[in-house]
């Protein structure tokens, strides 16, 4: 019997599918990290240490020698052998949003077909809020420096950040209307236009648009990876808010109601696991505080911004022991066979992101 291969069998994998490496874009004095560069560098070294226990690490940095030296001091020789360093100029460090988005072939091919395509969308600083041109050039430079064992697809005509989409690996894509319809991204496209483009880019059959759950202090216009994450077996981990005094209460109650009403492609309700809302954290310039009367900016702390590795999940903690522990329990329920490891993310949120935002996973076989 003759089986013909479908004209297109590339799919957007789920994050928990096998990975070759995690990409990090290293902080340096020319970024907004400058006031607390030592602290954020320590956070990066901690992430590098955990990642290289499970898989390879691809590092983009304009300060190659010092980055290599710091990593060599922190990591064992075996871990260091898993590090791939590439030198290039950068504006900032949010690899989730400037890194490539991977499509993986689900079929069996003859040897000349490259089974991984890396989609290089335009990154424009979340709607031209920040300098972005160097970061937007990273994927192409990595490709030309021979980092990838994959084809690079140019999608520079469309603005899309990795943090704004979530995939279940079987044809459903999650996103948020507030981000994908935000100013200076893809006007004048409507929601219908963008919906059909997402289906075309990622070969999905279902796009779930969430309309609620925007964290105060989030300058991405509401990335999905700060509020709702997909886990195996039709599970969604989402940020809940039970404190009626919190300014975000109504918005997150509405998110919860919306999640209770959506169904899988097969028509089943999702298994919902609620993550706690961290106590509000404010930035007063010289220090962070949880004092409700603070005049500082509220930071978008969230437990949803975790990173899935081969065999582990790294999740953000905020020096709030009870809530940190509750978040860990919920994530462990979703990923029972993985180690769940907390990393203090108080420095990361000073730049309005967390662990997932700093990282981008690359699928098995994607790097040289």
Automatic annotation (TrEMBL):
Keywords of the record: Hydrolase
* InterPro entries membership: Peptidyl-Arg-deiminase_porph
Gene3D superfamilies assigned to the protein according to its UniProt record, in alphabetical order: L-arginine/glycine Amidinotransferase, Chain A (3.75.10.10)
**Pfam name, any one:** PAD_porph
What's the protein here called? Agmatine deiminase family protein
């Amino acid at each position: 019997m003759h089986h013909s291969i479908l004209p297109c069998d590339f799919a957007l994998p789920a994050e928990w599918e096998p990975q070759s490496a995690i990409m990090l874009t290293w902080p340096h004095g020319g970024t907004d990290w400058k006031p607390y560069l030592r602290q954020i560098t320590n956070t990066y070294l901690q992430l590098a240490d955990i990642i290289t226990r499970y898989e390879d690490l691809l590092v983009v940095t304009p300060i190659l020698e010092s980055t290599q030296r710091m990593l060599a001091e922190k990591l064992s020789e075996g871990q260091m052998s898993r590090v791939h360093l590439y030198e290039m100029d950068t504006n900032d460090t949010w690899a989730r949003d400037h890194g490539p988005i991977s499509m993986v072939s689900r079929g069996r091919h003859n040897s000349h077909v490259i089974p991984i395509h890396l989609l290089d969308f335009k990154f424009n600083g979340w709607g031209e809020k920040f300098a972005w041109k160097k970061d937007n050039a990273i994927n192409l430079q990595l490709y030309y420096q021979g980092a990838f064992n994959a084809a690079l697809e140019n999608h520079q005509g469309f603005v899309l950040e990795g943090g704004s989409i979530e995939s279940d690996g079987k044809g459903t894509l999650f996103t948020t209307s507030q981000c994908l319809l935000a100013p200076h991204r893809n006007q004048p496209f409507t929601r219908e236009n963008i919906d059909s483009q997402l289906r075309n880019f990622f070969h999905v059959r279902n796009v779930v648009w969430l309309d609620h759950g925007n964290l105060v202090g989030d300058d991405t216009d509401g990335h999905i990876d700060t509020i709702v994450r997909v886990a195996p077996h039709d599970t969604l981990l989402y940020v809940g808010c039970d404190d009626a005094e919190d300014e975000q209460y109504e918005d997150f109650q509405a998110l919860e109601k919306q999640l209770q009403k959506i169904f899988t492609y097969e028509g089943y309700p999702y298994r919902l696991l609620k993550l706690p809302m961290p106590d509000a954290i404010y930035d007063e310039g010289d220090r962070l505080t949880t004092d409700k009367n603070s005049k500082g900016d509220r930071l978008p702390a969230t437990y949803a911004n975790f990173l899935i590795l081969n065999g582990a999940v790294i999740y953000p903690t905020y020096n709030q022991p009870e809530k940190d522990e509750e978040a860990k329990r919920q994530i462990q329920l979703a990923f029972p066979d993985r180690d769940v490891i907390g990393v203090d993310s108080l420095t990361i949120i000073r730049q309005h992101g967390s662990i997932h935002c700093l990282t981008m996973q690359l699928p098995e076989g994607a790097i040289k």
